[in-house]
Structures are given as structure tokens and as C-alpha cells.
Design a protein that fits this description.
376 residues, alpha/beta, FAD/NAD(P)-binding domain, D-Amino Acid Oxidase, Chain A, domain 2, 2 domains, six-stranded mixed beta sheet, globular, binds flavin-adenine dinucleotide
Length: 376
């Protein structure tokens, strides 16, 4: 099958490798240079669904050593002062052998490995332009050109979107009082805060806060920002040094009204952009890629290429909608300070602290997503 992919972010890049490995000829269109693609300062939480995709395309063994594995995911609700932990034992049996609840990946490391990998694959042709000269040459066109997709605008595919009146502030910080293999999701009325291990005492902090507060905090000298951070961190955890400049990262909710248009298929942030709470973003993007790869690998599909976009939309719907609902719920749950919700919040945390079945259920959703997938 001849496939064009527009956009070589982490979704387009993984899609090109996955589809080429499944036997397609792929033209990968990207307007930025490799250097610009690599030099983005982002940190991702990788779940087992992403690990499976990386294994399937044959890059897991090469990149797993550059990822930081975590065995504990602590969830804290600051308002009710309760917490619980997801452990490796809460994963499905087949995932427990990896002895990791998840992994943390730095963008530059993962992107440079993928670009290097692409350069050895014959069936991927990288084209440094944003315009596809002749769309008739392709059986499928995959739009992976990000949340401000020009492809989507050109095809007039509407999307539902709103802003959270919040932005994320991210910083790499040396912390005292934490294990190097634990991650945190802290729900506070300012907004969710994630602490992700980067190896040793180094951690990535990703905190969402109101635009006003974030602009103020970003203007602070580093040592005062550090004092402010210490007020957000769990009891007993002390920030020592900020390694980089704290940066803002815009957050919004955006969901396409349709996941395809003719022979165009929307994947990754082109199709859905959610709040980073729960670390679902990149994993959801890569599950889109897994779905298309499964579809084009179906034996009967060669004669019915035209139904791939429809089958794709159908099979991605439940996963994308449910993750959109869960992430949005978590943001609202975290920010509400209504006394009426005190009792339900305490009940939820007590159940999750005591019941392994409840933790398994939630962790399985966070790890594998929801819904239906076509398999070869
Ligand atoms: C500033 C910022 C910071 C972020 N930080 C984090 C983070 O810390 N942790 C996290 O989990 N997630 C983060 N995210 C989200 C995360 O980057 C995405 O979930 C992930 O990169 C997958 O995105 P994507 O490949 O679908 O789209 P993108 O990464 O946006 O890639 C789209 C690509 O398409 C290219 N493109 C656009 N238009 C065209 C065109 N017309 N022709 C050719 N190419 C085109 C762009 O140059 C880009 O390379 C961040 C996003 C942003 C914007």
C-alpha cells in the first residue's frame, strides 16, 4: 500500500516505522529539520500499550535502556489528605514480568533514536516539505501534523475544543526524600501536579495552574520558584536545585468531530489533544498507530482499502472518548473545592487504597486504554 504521512512528530514517526514494517511504502512529509524535531524539551510517561508498539516495531530493546522505569505510582489528593499507590502487582499478569508500572522518556533521546532507525528503513522516504504534490499517488494519507493541523483546516473537519484557563509549568528539579523509581500524580485545587523520575535524584515536575499564577511563577528568580515548589510537594520531599529554566506548556481540550475525511486519517494530536493529567497523551497517539497497522495487516483489506478510514474511526472511538472523559474528569475533580465532594472523594480513595481489584481495573485502563481493536 502507498501511504503518505504528514508530520514527523512522535506519532508520525512511529506510524511510518510501523506501517513500513507492515509492508507499506511510506512517504513521510515534515517541514522541520531533524535537529528541530529532536530539540524539543518534553518528557513523556510511557505505558505498557506503548511498550508493546515499540516491541512490535523492533525498537524496544534499543531504547528501553534510555528510559527510566518506575515501580510505584503514588496518587495523592491534597484536599482530603489521602493517598494510594499503584504497584507492579496491580498490572495484568503478562505485564508484571517487566517489573515496571511505566517508564519515563525524554523527547530528545527517543526522537533521535527513531530518526536514526528510519534512516535504515528502505520503504520510508522522508520528504522535507509540507505540501503533498500529488495526493492521487496514495492509497491512504495519514495526518499527524499536530493540534494546529493545516490538513484538518484544509479539509474543513471541525473539532470540539475549549481552553482550561490553565497552563502547565514544567521544570527539571533535584529532589530529596524520594525514591528514584517512584512517580507521583498529586491532585490539588490549583490543578494536577506530576512528578516523574528522570534517574537518580532528578525529577520532572509538571504542574498545571491558572494562567495568572503560572505567569507570576515563571517570572520568579529560580531560588524563589524553588521555595514555591516546596509548598506543592508531598510531605518530606525537598527541592534542592532547578536544573533548567521552568517553561510553560499550553493545555487545551480538542477532539475532532470525525477521525477521517475521505482517504485522510487523523492520528495523534491532530485528532485529539487532552490535558496531560494521567500521562495519557503520547500513549493514546501511539494506540492510533497500532490500530491503523492492525487494519492494513488484515488479509482481506487489500481489495477494500477504501473502508480503512471508516474502520479506523469506528475502532478508535471508544478509547479516545473514554480517555477524553477520564482526563477531563480528573482535572475537574482535582480543582473542585466543594465540601459536598469531600465524602465521595474519601470513599474513592479508601476503596482504591484497600481494593486490589479496583486498582487493577483503573491501572489497566490507564495502561491499555479502552475499546475495540482489529487484529491480524
Ligand atoms: C509545547 C509542548 C510541550 C509538550 N510537552 C509535553 C510533555 O512534557 N509531556 C507529554 O506527555 N506531552 C507533551 N506535549 C504533547 C506531546 O508533545 C504530544 O502528545 C506528542 O508529541 C505527540 O504529538 P504528535 O506527533 O501527534 O504531534 P506533534 O508533536 O505536534 O507533531 C506534529 C508534527 O507535524 C509537523 N507539521 C505540522 N504541519 C505540517 C505540515 N503542513 N506539513 C508537514 N509537517 C507538518 C510539525 O512540524 C510537527 O513535527 C507537549 C506539546 C507541546 C505543544
Amino acid at each position: 500500500m502507498n501511504i503518505a504521512i504528514i508530520g514527523s512528530g512522535l506519532t508520525g514517526t512511529i506510524a511510518s516505522i510501523s506501517l513500513a514494517k507492515a509492508g507499506s511504502r511510506v512517504d513521510l512529509y515534515e517541514r522541520l529539520s531533524d535537529e528541530e524535531l529532536i530539540n524539543r524539551d518534553r518528557t513523556y510517561a510511557i505505558t505498557h500499550s506503548s511498550r508493546r508498539i515499540l516491541e512490535r516495531i523492533g525498537v524496544w530493546s534499543d531504547i528501553s535502556s534510555s528510559l527510566v522505569s518506575f515501580q510505584y505510582l503514588n496518587v495523592i489528593d491534597n484536599q482530603i489528605n489521602k493517598n494510594f499507590q499503584f504497584l507492579v502487582n496491580d498490572l495484568n499478569n503478562r505485564e508484571q514480568q517487566y517489573v515496571s508500572v511505566g517508564w519515563i522518556a525524554q523527547h530528545n533521546i527517543i526522537m533521535s533514536s527513531m530518526l536514526e532507525y528510519i534512516s535504515h528503513i528502505e520503504h520510508i522516504n522522508k520528504i522535507p516539505t509540507s505540501v503533498i504534490p500529488n495526493t492521487h499517488n496514495y492509497d491512504l494519507i495519514i495526518a499527524a501534523d499536530g493540534s494546529n493541523s493545516t490538513t484538518k483546516k484544509k479539509l474543513k473537519t471541525p473539532s470540539f475544543s475549549f481552553d482550561y484557563d490553565q497552563i502547565c509549568v514544567t521544570a527539571k528539579v533535584l529532589l530529596r526524600g524520594l525514591k528514584s523509581n517512584e512517580a507521583f500524580e498529586i491532585l490539588s485545587t490549583e490543578g494536577p501536579l506530576a512528578i516523574l523520575p528522570l534517574g537518580g535524584d532528578l525529577f520532572q515536575i509538571i504542574c498545571s495552574q491558572s494562567i495568572k499564577k503560572a505567569s507570576y511563577n515563571l517570572s520568579l528568580p529560580k531560588h524563589i520558584f524553588l521555595d514555591y515548589l516546596s509548598t506543592l510537594l508531598p510531605y518530606g520531599v525537598e527541592p534542592d536545585t532547578i536544573i533548567d529554566e521552568p517553561k510553560p506548556y499550553p493545555i487545551k481540550f480538542q477532539l475532532n468531530s470525525s477521525f477521517h475525511s475521505g482517504k485522510y486519517i487523523y492520528v495523534g494530536e491532530t485528532c485529539h489533544t487532552f490535558h496531560p493529567v494521567g500521562g495519557q497523551g503520547l500513549n493514546l497517539c501511539w494506540r492510533d498507530v497500532e490500530c491503523i497497522t492492525n487494519l492494513i495487516s488484515l488479509p482481506f483489506i487489500r481489495n477494500y482499502k477504501f473502508i480503512i478510514p471508516v474502520l479506523y474511526s469506528f475502532s478508535r472511538l471508544i478509547d479516545v472518548l473514554s480517555i477524553s472523559f477520564i482526563t477531563d474528569f480528573l482535572v475537574r475533580y482535582s480543582r473542585t473545592n466543594s465540601c459536598l465532594l469531600f465524602i465521595p472523594k474519601i470513599i474513592i480513595f479508601s476503596i482504591l487504597k484497600r481494593s486490589k481489584i479496583a486498582r487493577k481495573f483503573i491501572l489497566n485502563i490507564m495502561t491499555n486504554g479502552f475499546g475495540f481493536n482489529f487484529h491480524k
